[in-house]
Amino acid sequence: GRPLDTAARTFAVLGQSMPAFWLGLMLILFFQKYMQKPIHLFGTLGLLLFLITLSLNLLGDVFVRRTRQRY
Hints:
The protein has helices at 3-17, 20-35, 44-70. It is mostly helical. It starts with a helix and ends with a helix. Helix 2 (20-35) packs antiparallel against helix 3. It has three helices and no strands. 82% of the residues lie in helices and 0% in strands. The longest helix has 27 residues, at 44-70.
């Protein structure tokens, strides 16, 4: 009902349905546009974005496994 609830639900659905590689690409494009400099994979920021994307993917897998174990 409330706008905050709708926004949270939309964010959750998009977060669960978005592949990890797509999130990584979007993060790189976002930071390239707003920082006005290229981001290389082996640079500090590129490596940080890669690790964030990888950890989100792994956390999602752990969450799914634990949820399936409970039910």
